[in-house]
Amino acid sequence: MTAHNTAAIGEIADRILLPGDPLRAKYIAEHFLENAQCVNTVRSMLAYTGSYRDKRVSVMGTGMGMPSMGIYAHELMEIYQVKRLIRVGTCGSISERAALRDVVLAMGSCTDSSMNESRLPGIHYAPIADYSLLKAAQETAEAMGVNAQVGNVFTSDKFYNEHFDALMPRLRQYGVLAVDMETCELYTLAARFGAHALSILTVSDSLLSEEQCSTEERQTAFHSMMRIALEIL
């Protein structure tokens, strides 16, 4: 249907999980969904549709960064009419409140990207999570005994940023919990298309202690985050 997604209309469910890594999408499909079928392989950005507890659910990789998230999320909402989208990704903690492997529920997102400035000239738009999904995620995490922190995240345009050491204390002073590269764009597009979106993030790196998860853990070890997402999707 598009240059990036050849799934036919109807092959993608109206509710979807969005990991950045397409191999994590494959892992989720194989370990959490029933009767999952691959519906897209373009550019190796794998997408699958199956079911979870009688709900029809899709999962698709989005790549890294706001431009990549923007392509896939835009097409999913505009063309495939997806209405509920949950990013299940990783983040780097900059707060003592969010330890390695903790879950962060992103209430809102600030950013150094200029993408929203081009959409809304002269306005510093503040994209936020869907409240119903956020509330359900917090309640589900509590019921599961998962340590989930709710707060603001910083969506960065840069993975390598030589100025971040100076910026991090100021972000922390203003209550920012963690850094990712996609949440701001997902929340902005969900607002535009009238969809429900939430980012559920697992801390893969602590930028305070310099601890980090292994590559294998990043792909496979975030079961708590995935179960919360699937329960509320």
Helix content: 25-40%
Beta content: 25-35%
Main beta-sheet strand count, sense and barrel state: 5 strands, mixed, barrel
**Which sequence of strands runs across the widest sheet?**
5-8-7-6-9
The coarse silhouette is: globular
Global structural class: alpha/beta
Please count the helical segments.
8
Low-confidence stretches: none
- Summarize model confidence as the mean pLDDT: 95
Could you state the order of secondary-structure elements as H and E? EHEEEHEEHHEHEHEHH
Number of strands: 9
SSE layout and pairings?
Blueprint (H helix, E strand, L loop, with lengths): L14 E4 L3 H11 L1 E7 L6 E6 L2 E6 L5 H13 L5 E10 L9 E9 L3 H5 L11 H14 L3 E8 L8 H10 L2 E5 L2 H11 L2 E11 L8 H6 L2 H10 L1
Parallel strand pairs: 1-4, 1-5, 5-9, 6-7, 7-8
Antiparallel strand pairs: 2-3, 3-4, 5-8, 6-9
Can you give a write-up of this model?
It is built from 8 helices and 9 strands. The longest helix is centred in the middle third of the chain and has 14 residues, at about 130-145. It is an alpha/beta fold. Strand 2 and strand 3 (about 45-50) form a beta hairpin. The protein has helices spanning about 20-30, 65-80, 115-120, 130-145, 165-175, 185-195, 215-220, 225-230, and strands at about 15-20, 35-40, 45-50, 55-60, 85-95, 105-110, 150-155, 175-180, 195-205. A 5-stranded mixed beta barrel has the order 5-8-7-6-9, surrounded by 4 helices.
